[in-house]
Specification:
alpha+beta, three-stranded antiparallel beta sheet, 8 strands, globular, DUF1479-domain-containing protein, Gig2-like, IPNS-like_sf
């Protein structure tokens, strides 16, 4: 999505999508829906643009157009029964179990996911989107920019621009991050090379610390 500089694009690498629940949410109350058939749904939506239904007999035939069903540049791909009838998303999407404050949910980035179309609960469904971002060069490069933005009080890359908290009194500063893990996550402390790491992992940690000037 970052190819189109669209809001919501992501230039970091996420190995897993994830969110942290801040409220109790039952199925049907504004929670997460996923399509659990990853093995079958992924090849379907990858191949779907290359085939279309013959209007005469309904058989599949090669589609040489540039149509990518439900996809608009700079936005997520829409999956629905009309464009992807074989997926049957209206019935195949499955709610995650009830979550409570502090519960963390992860799902594969290739998994079709959505939020309940109708919120039938009595209170807000509130979450923080916190994906799993492994230590790799593209994420370290992003972390350098994120650290700089945090210190300046402005939104980091991939978020809407503007002044953010630049002029806010009492906004968070690096001194407010008290834990070692938190300071590492924000690029203020070096990552640790541990004895059990593979040579490749040790090399990546060393490169990360060099990139962060730590």
């Amino acid at each position: 999505m970052s190819l189109y500089n669209a809001a919501g694009g992501c230039t970091a690498f996420r190995s897993w999508q994830g969110w942290l629940s801040l409220s109790t949410v039952n199925p049907g109350e504004g929670g997460l829906l996923v399509n659990p058939l990853l093995k079958y749904s992924t090849p379907y939506w990858l191949l779907r643009p290359f085939f279309t239904r013959n209007k005469t007999d309904g058989d599949w035939e090669i589609d040489t157009s540039s149509v990518w069903q439900g996809a608009v540049p700079g936005r997520g791909q829409e999956m629905n029964d009309s464009l992807h009838p074989e997926l049957q998303p209206s019935t195949s999407m499955t709610s995650v179990p009830t979550v409570h404050p502090g519960d963390m949910v992860f799902w594969h980035c290739d998994t079709i996911h959505a939020v309940d179309a109708v919120h039938r609960g009595q209170s807000d469904s509130t979450v923080f989107y916190i994906p799993a971002a492994p230590l790799c060069q593209i994420n370290v490069d992003y972390l350098v920019q994120q650290r700089d933005s945090f210190q300046r009080g402005i939104p980091p890359p991939d978020f809407p621009g503007g002044e953010g908290e630049l002029h806010h009194v009492g906004r968070a500063t690096p001194e407010d991050i008290n834990t070692l893990e938190g300071r590492r996550a924000m690029g203020f402390e070096p990552f640790e090379i541990k004895s059990y790491m593979t040579p490749g992992e040790k090399e990546m940690v060393s490169k990360a610390n060099t990139t962060l000037n730590l």
